[in-house]
């Protein structure tokens, strides 16, 4: 079946039903991707499952290619990974010598405005995955994707700690909704 010819309404109705679509869809898909998994209504469960499958598909794709050859793919993955989170969390993307994704994990989860990150734990995980490099990302539930001074200081601390074991810090991303800011693009690394 060619789903590209179906309207957004029809696609949503096939996933979550007519009533939920009428109640939730107001001409934009953004609210569906911003809903928190823990707060999502039961009728949105199939859509949340589809979002998670999409996130996993992008992660699989990143594992097959040179992830840094496509920063757009990394940013798309991160938008999905943080979609709907009402709390701040920190993600590490461990890569091999060819910058292919080995593993993505969320080692730290915080509150609405902050997350405690421990460089020692990141070093242990980088050694565990035998990573050659790592990219970091965290979200700002406030909706502002600007790196703070604390974000810059943390990145430098992580970079220093990982340099001791020859693991390169390739980038640090700040995600706020659909906006993703790269430290590397800003010259902050």
Task: Describe the protein in words.
- The chain is an alpha+beta fold and 189 residues long.
- It has one domain (8-186): Cytidine Deaminase, domain 2 (3-Layer(aba) Sandwich).
- It is built from eight helices and five strands.
- It has helices at 8-16, 18-24, 30-34, 45-64, 71-82, 119-128, 149-163, 183-186; strands at 89-95, 101-109, 133-139, 168-176, 179-182.
- The chain has a five-stranded mixed sheet, sandwiched between helices.
- Strand 1 and strand 2 (101-109) form a beta hairpin.
- Helix 1 (8-16) crosses helix 2, helix 4 packs antiparallel against helix 5 (71-82) and helix 6 (119-128) packs across helix 7 (149-163).
- It is elongated, with a radius of gyration of 18 Å.
- The mean pLDDT is 82.
Please give the largest β-sheet. Answer: 5 strands, mixed
CATH class: Alpha Beta
What would the CATH topology be? Answer: Cytidine Deaminase, domain 2
**N-to-C series of helices and strands:** HHHHHEEHEHEEH
Helix content: 40-55%
How would you name the CATH homologous superfamily? Cytidine Deaminase, domain 2
Q: How many discrete structural domains?
A: 1
Ends distance? 47 Å
| Category from helices, strands and their pairing | alpha+beta
Low-confidence stretches: none
Q: Give the spatial strand order of the biggest sheet.
A: 2-1-3-4-5
What does the average pLDDT come to? 82
Treating each run of at least 4 consecutive H or I residues as one helix, how many helices? Answer: 8
Query: DSSP strand (E) fraction?
Result: 15-25%
């Amino acid at each position: 079946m060619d789903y590209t010819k179906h309207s957004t309404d029809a696609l949503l109705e096939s996933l979550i039903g007519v009533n939920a679509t009428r109640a939730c869809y107001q001409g934009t898909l953004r609210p569906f991707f911003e809903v928190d998994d823990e707060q999502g209504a039961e009728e949105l469960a199939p859509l949340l499952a589809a979002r998670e499958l999409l996130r996993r598909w992008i992660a699989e794709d990143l594992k097959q290619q040179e992830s840094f050859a496509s920063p757009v793919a990394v940013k798309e993955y991160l938008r999905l990974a943080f979609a709907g989170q009402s709390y701040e969390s920190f993600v590490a993307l461990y890569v091999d010598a060819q910058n292919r994704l080995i593993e993505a994990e969320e080692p730290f989860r915080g509150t609405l405005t902050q997350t405690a990150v421990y460089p020692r734990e990141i070093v242990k995980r980088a050694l565990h995955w035998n990573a050659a490099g790592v990219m970091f990302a965290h979200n700002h539930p406030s909706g502002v994707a600007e790196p703070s001074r604390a974000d810059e200081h943390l990145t430098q601390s992580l970079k220093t700690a990982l340099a001791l074991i020859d693991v390169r810090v390739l980038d640090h991303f700040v995600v706020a909704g659909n906006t993703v800011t790269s430290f590397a693009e800003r010259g902050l690394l």
